[in-house]
Amino acid sequence: MKTAGTFKFSLITFIFIVSFAHSQNLDKLTLIAHYPLSSTANDTTGNYGPMDLTNTPFQDGGIYCNGNYIGTESDSCDAITPEITDFNFKSFGVSVKFKVNDVTSRKPVIMCGRYYRWLGLFTDPDTTVGLFLGGYFDATPSSSVKFTLGEWHEMTATYDSTEGIARLYLDDAPVDSASALLDHHHDNTFGITHGGASLVFKGFLKDFKLYSDITQQKMKQDSLALVALYNSTNGDSWTNNTNWLTGPVSTWHGVTIEEDRVYRIDLHGNNLVGTLPGEIGNLDNLYYLELSTNQLGGSIPPEIGNMTELTYLYLCYNQLDGTIPEEIQNATKIVWMILNDNQLSGSIPAEIGNLTNLQALNLSENQLTDSIPSEICNLFFCQYLYLRNNLLSGPIPSRIGDLTNLINLDLSNNQMTGPIPPGIGSLINLKEFRFSSNQFSGFLPPEMGNLIHCQVLRLYGNQLSGSIPSTLINLTQLHTLELNDNLFDDLPDLSSLSSLNSLDIAQNRFTFEDIEPNIGIPNFGYYPQDNVGEAIDTSVAVGQNLTLSVQVGGTANQYQWFKDGIEIIGADSSAYGIESITVSDSGSYICQITNTIATELTLDCRPIHVHVYGGTPVANLVNAIPDQFTLFQNYPNPFNPETTIRFDVKESCLVLLKVYNLLGQEVATLINQKYQPGRYEISFSASGFSSGLYFYKIQMGDFQSIKKMVVTE
């Protein structure tokens, strides 16, 4: 069976041996020791100590065996391993690469145990290889496969007690097999180039490997981990604990065994009450763990990172708390990690970005805080990312666009801030986009028009502003668009999106020109909207003319003006004029705008507060011309609501008289015109003003003067 050619690297050799073991139905074999013997005596697996390489120097990429031996002929070896503990001699394999310089007799190359009791390999004068079994040389090999002197070859031998057969391969080709009953009576050591003075090996050796079936040991480890889970979660009170701790593990409720290992645990909704034990990490062959919808509390044990075969992890709908352990990064085969609806807290660990096989990550409905780590954008294969209903803050990672396989992205109901980055447009496979109920701000990037597969887009409950990008008309599969409760003020015509059957734009700053083109979209929620315009305070002297106006887009608008909440008869256009204004016209004005197309919305303009002051100044209160400019104290003072202000004009000039509040803000202009010399007075009504301290200031040419007055309640 030739599948991999000649072996040049130990890694390739290892991969081949595993493949070979599978082809021989010995896939339970596990590499437990590897001595490269190229420049070191150490075991690269780290399981065992170094070999004793007395009289075997490193040379030509291997160890050189020159015919010397140690001790007496009966127990001599040029190289020997330390004791290999926990070795299963009922099913195992050995392999070694060799290069023989010359062959004059059968030369043992490798053996298990020091006293010829076990499987061994030898070279033959006819340049073939054979099996060495239990203290005797096997018959002439049944295959004519030969090796070449002076070249590197690889010998592999396997033994399976259930078959009672040992097999030999040379460079991956079958050479020999023999029935064997190998009983182990001696220490667990392995010797290389065993022999006496006449049976020594001359040549080079490297890449010595040992394989063993560790299933039985691992199954014991698995069963103990299950017992720990049972005890830690009040197994006696489980809804279903059939056969647990009594019958064979394969009969325990919710446990699936494959190839003599615990492969699957499904105990969802089974009333597990307690904590996850650290021993659960010993289930290093577990593929599927489903413990959702129980009453598990405490933290997720860091030992979960030891579950290196774990692919599906479901711990949702429990009461788990504490942080997500960073050790979980070692469980690199996880594809689905579902931890939602617990009480997990702290930050999302950056190490989660090492789980590059993740396709689904659900951490929703927890108490996770801080920013989303940028490393989460390493999850290139992730299709479903759910982080809703946490306490996450900070911006969206700028590399979010790297997650190009995302189908569903849910960051809703957090405290995240900042803009939506343009890179979001790279998520071309996205179908559901949920960013609602955060504090996102700024404009929507036009790149969102690249999300051509998007079906659900939820952005409500943020502080997003500006225009909705016209590129959204590219989202031809969109059926739900929720933009309500933001600060948007411009909406394109989306009526061409035939799949769109739910559009909510309420509680924004849209007007009828945004709504009219979209009125035919099903389930269109467009009211209420923010008031239009800006609040205005204006002061007007008696007798002047005043025009109030409002500007609102739309083709079918209707207007109605109100003063102090009372409809003004006949004031039904966008502008309302008041001629020869009187004090009685003081008040708060608003305009309500309706529309004959968008009939469910009424827009109010922000209030316009009009203050009308006094009448025409009374002139020449004295016969003589004043000899100086003077501003007198108002009377009465304090007052409510009217007072009189008197002033003297020395010479013809422009007179400017204004009123200011305590903050220095102008609240009224009483006079702004030219006067002849004389004494004048003007009435000032503070109707509509709040009580408190005010200032009135007069300017007459170069003369200025300021005085205080008090409006009482």
Could you explain how this protein is built, in words?
Helix content is about 5%, strand content about 35%. The protein is mainly β and about 725 residues long. It folds into 4 domains: about 10-215, Jelly Rolls (Sandwich); about 225-525, Ribonuclease Inhibitor (Leucine-rich repeat, LRR (right-handed beta-alpha superhelix)); about 535-610, Immunoglobulin-like, CATH 2.60.40; about 615-710, Immunoglobulin-like, CATH 2.60.40.1930. Strands 15-16-18-20-22-24-26-28-30-32-34-36-37 form a 13-stranded mixed beta sheet, covered by helices on one side. Strands 1, 2, 3, 5, 10, 11, 12 and 14 form an 8-stranded antiparallel beta sheet that branches. The termini are far apart.
Secondary structure layout plus pairing:
Blueprint: H1 10-23, E1 29-35, E2 58-59, E3 62-66, E4 77-80, E5 91-100, E6 107-112, E7 120-123, E8 129-133, E9 136-137, E10 153-160, E11 165-170, E12 173-179, E13 190-194, E14 202-213, H2 215-232, E15 255-258, E16 261-266, E17 273-275, E18 288-290, E19 295-297, E20 312-314, E21 321-322, E22 336-338, E23 343-346, E24 360-362, E25 367-370, E26 384-386, E27 391-394, E28 408-410, E29 415-418, E30 432-434, E31 439-442, E32 456-458, E33 463-467, E34 480-482, E35 487-490, E36 502-504, H3 512-515, E37 524-525, E38 536-541, E39 546-549, E40 557-563, E41 566-567, E42 575-578, E43 587-595, E44 603-604, E45 608-613, E46 630-631, E47 642-649, E48 653-660, E49 666-675, E50 678-685, E51 692-700, E52 703-711
Parallel strand pairs: 16-18, 17-19, 18-20, 20-22, 21-23, 22-24, 23-25, 24-26, 25-27, 26-28, 27-29, 28-30, 29-31, 30-32, 31-33, 32-34, 33-35, 34-36, 36-37, 38-45
Antiparallel strand pairs: 1-14, 2-3, 3-14, 4-13, 5-10, 5-14, 6-7, 6-13, 7-8, 8-9, 10-11, 11-12, 15-16, 39-42, 40-41, 40-43, 43-44, 43-45, 46-47, 47-50, 48-49, 48-51, 51-52
